[in-house]
Amino acid sequence: MSTIYIKNMVCNRCVMVVRDELAKLNIEATQISLGEVILERTLTDEKKQHLSKALEAVGFEIIDDKKSRTIEQIKNVIIDIIQHKDNEHNENLSKILSNSLHHDYNYLSNIFSEVEGTTIEKYFIAQKIEKVKELLVYDELSLSEIANQLNYSSVAYLSNQFKKITGLTPSHFKKIGNQKRKPLDEV
User: Fold this and answer.
1) Which of 2, 22, 48, 55 could be a cystine partner for 27, CB 3.0 to 4.6 Å?
2) Distances (CA, A) of 76 to 11, 25, 185
3) What does the pLDDT look like over 41-65, one tens digit per residue?
4) Domain 2-64 annotated CATH 3.40.50.720
């Protein structure tokens, strides 16, 4: 068995696309998750190169160095928390990341800032704001419900943070809709 790490996998649709690309190349995977593919056997250099080209054609990239893999894992944990955990986590982000990735938070924070040019906290906030935008556009939840779902202490705090990041109030954003949303891999 071997593991390949893939950049820009941010949702279940990404997993399906990677699964399809692997199938086209007759590469057997035992498990595919965000940012990670566990293969039946190690790929030859030629097969890995074909896979790399196929993945690049659909917006993904194989990650070979340890720092990049760690950063991608940090991003995937954050995206998973925001997109899929609906109010499950009462722990702080540093503890969640440390426990999930089995590294000291200071180490994770330092390499993230060094490579990405921003802090983990700012990345986390940007992801939360993108989720708020998504929920506002869907128009199924009140701002209070959105604040609760994303673990904001109050609607006022959510509104202030939203305005600070986007320059708009949540209600004004809701009026203009989809024009200001970014794909998750561009946040």
Assistant:
1) 22
2) 9, 25, 10
3) 898 989 999 999 999 999 999 988 8
4) no
- CATH numeric code, 66-187: 1.10.10.60
61 phi and psi angles, rounded to 5 deg: -150, 135
Is 125 in a helix, a strand, or coil? Answer: helix
Question: Is 182:130 a contact under the CB 8 Å cutoff?
Answer: yes
User: Which are the contacts of 143, defined by CB distance < 8 A and separation ≥ 6?
Assistant: 136, 155, 158, 159, 170, 171
DSSP code string of 130-181: HHHHHHHHHT-S-HHHHHHHTT-S-HHHHHHHHHHHHSS-HHHHHHHGGGG-
Nearest to 170 by CA among 187, 185, 157: 157
